[in-house]
């Protein structure tokens, strides 16, 4: 057997099937059947009233039956467009901060959904300082880990497969982590300004070194950034504390208790990431997290931030001063400080089976994009929810297979086999995890956005992904791609528990 056929493959990503008639879903089916019964009963009294009821049922069910390519209903599309129109009328897409703005305190606070967050600090069991992003609006606490992945270059296949297995085990353990709402893995690529190289090499030059050697070293330090890039990896874990119960405590005391709890939980999770190929994982201090967010909103300060850190260590960047001085959101772009960004989301996972390096091209640096950030959002489900979803999906798949004939039955049979495999793995102890993928490309000007569109389309095709631009929600999508604990499903108008029935 050849090595290519011996390598394991991965797949079986499934969206649970919606029970109901065709694309209507459960809620639409109930409305349709209930409307038909109501129209029949009304016809016994007045046929004019029955026609009115029928028209009302059609007006409700047709938007639920019309689906986009990524499965969104007509109501979802109309709701997004109406929300964008309302924000434009109210002036929300334009944000200004600083001393001359209306922001309380005159500080450069973060915009949008991150505006209400604040930074807390703690120390873990090893005495390392770490920052905790607290969002009082949804009562979440986020800790960020910085990783130094080894990369797959010159690594044998067995080691890569072991890393993938370790990553799967780490994700499975998240389902047993008390109070964990979600995790975000952020891989950011950007041009390397060469600050770290210069700070490391230039002080090492001997005073009596030959002039030719000094010139060669200076040329290397000067020209190295032109063809190099910097890749950073972060893992953000978002928690929600348990209900206080009968214990009477202030909000400050509960926040302090949560920081103390995270100080105990973080080291084991960081240690387990090493077995997944993440290298040395360590919690990030508060000013380091603020530096990342500050640089994301204003890439022009990246070289200055690295220079300060190389010369004097921490930058002492405050969280409530890490936002942009000005930002403007359009339907398909987000202008912030010295750059403009466009964000895509994955609307379909790769079909079939893939190898472990399927996302390699999407994650590696691109010469046509100034800064690129790829974020994987994970929402682990507990054992009870996993079992309920798996069994419901299995019953729906069997029903659809039994009620279809002809060529459609081939796809229904494939769905049955997939649900049976998922049910067997869940019964053996595996957990379900919902995931999403967000890609943000940051360019120097709006004229470069068409080039980013082409490059992202090519990278998505190589990764067997289908991406779509987030229309009318660019600011929120940009924030969800940052390691700041912004989980989209916590900020939706329609709860995610109800969205599955639409």
Outline the structure in words.
By secondary structure, this protein is of the alpha+beta class. It has three domains: about 65-190 and about 230-380 and about 430-500, no CATH class; about 195-225, no CATH class; about 385-430. It has helices spanning about 5, 25-45, 45-65, 75-90, 155-175, 195-200, 210-225, 250-280, 285-295, 300-310, 360-365, 385-400, 410-425, 450-460, 475-480, 495-500; strands at about 95, 120-125, 130-135, 140-145, 180-190, 230-240, 280-285, 325-330, 335, 340-350, 370-380, 435-445, 465-470. Strands 1, 2, 3, 4, 5, 6, 7, 8, 9, 10, 11, 12 and 13 form a 13-stranded antiparallel β-sheet that branches. A hairpin with a 4-residue loop joins strand 3 and strand 4. Helix 2 (about 25-45) runs antiparallel to helix 3, helix 5 runs antiparallel to helix 8 (about 250-280) and helix 12 runs antiparallel to helix 13. The protein is globular, with a radius of gyration of 26 Å.
> Which percent range describes the beta-strand content?
15-25%
Radius of gyration from CA coordinates? 26 Å
Taking the sheet with the most strands, its summary is: 13 strands, antiparallel
What's the shape?
globular
Order of helices and strands: HHHHEEEEHEHHEHEHHEEEHEHHEHEHH
Helix content: 40-55%
């Amino acid at each position: 057997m050849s090595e290519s056929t011996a390598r394991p493959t991965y797949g079986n990503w499934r969206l649970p099937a919606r029970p109901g008639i065709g694309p209507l879903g459960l809620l639409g089916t109930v409305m349709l059947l209930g409307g038909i019964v109501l129209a029949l009963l009304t016809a016994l009294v007045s046929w004019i009233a029955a026609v009115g009821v029928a028209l009302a049922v059609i007006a409700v069910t047709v938007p639920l039956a019309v689906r986009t390519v990524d499965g969104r209903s007509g109501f979802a599309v109309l709701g997004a467009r109406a929300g964008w129109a309302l924000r434009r009328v109210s002036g929300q897409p334009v944000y200004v901060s600083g001393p001359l703005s209306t922001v309380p305190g005159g500080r450069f606070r973060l915009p949008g959904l991150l505006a209400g967050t604040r930074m807390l600090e703690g120390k873990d069991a090893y005495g390392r300082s770490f920052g905790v992003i607290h969002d009082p609006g949804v009562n979440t606490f986020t800790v960020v880990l910085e990783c130094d992945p080894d990369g797959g270059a010159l690594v044998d296949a067995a080691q890569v497969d072991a890393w993938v297995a370790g990553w799967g085990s780490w994700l499975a353990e998240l389902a047993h982590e008390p109070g964990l709402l979600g995790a975000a893995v952020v891989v950011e690529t950007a041009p390397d300004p060469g600050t770290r190289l210069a700070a490391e090499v230039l002080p090492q030059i001997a005073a009596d070194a030959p002039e030719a050697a000094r010139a060669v070293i200076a040329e290397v330090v000067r020209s190295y950034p032109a063809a190099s890039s910097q890749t950073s990896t972060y893992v953000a874990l978002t928690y929600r504390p348990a209900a206080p119960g009968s214990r009477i405590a202030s909000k400050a005391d509960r926040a302090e208790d949560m920081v103390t709890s995270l100080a105990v939980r973080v080291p084991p999770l960081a240690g387990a990431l090493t077995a997944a190929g993440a290298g040395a994982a360590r919690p990030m201090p508060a000013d380091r997290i603020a530096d990342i967010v500050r640089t994301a909103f204003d890439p022009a300060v990246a070289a200055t931030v690295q220079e300060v850190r190389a010369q004097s260590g921490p930058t002492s960047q405050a969280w409530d001063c890490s936002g942009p001085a000005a930002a403007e959101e359009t339907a398909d772009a987000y202008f912030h400080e010295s750059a403009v960004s466009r964000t895509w989301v994955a609307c379909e996972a790769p079909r079939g089976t893939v190898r472990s390096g399927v996302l390699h091209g999407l994650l590696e640096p691109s010469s046509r994009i100034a800064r690129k950030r790829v974020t994987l959002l994970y929402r682990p489900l507990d054992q009870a929810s996993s079992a309920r979803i798996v069994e419901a999906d299995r019953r729906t798949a069997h029903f659809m297979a039994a009620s279809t004939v002809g060529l459609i039955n081939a796809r229904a049979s494939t769905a049955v086999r997939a649900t049976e495999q998922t049910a067997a793995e869940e019964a053996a102890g595996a957990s379900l995890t919902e995931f999403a993928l967000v890609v943000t490309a940051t360019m120097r000007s709006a004229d470069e956005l068409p080039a980013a569109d082409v490059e992202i389309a090519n990278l998505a095709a190589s990764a067997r992904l289908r991406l779509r631009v987030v229309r009318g929600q660019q600011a929120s999508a940009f924030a969800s791609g940052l390691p700041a604990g912004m989980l989209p499903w916590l900020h939706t108008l329609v709860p995610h528990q109800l969205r599955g029935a639409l």
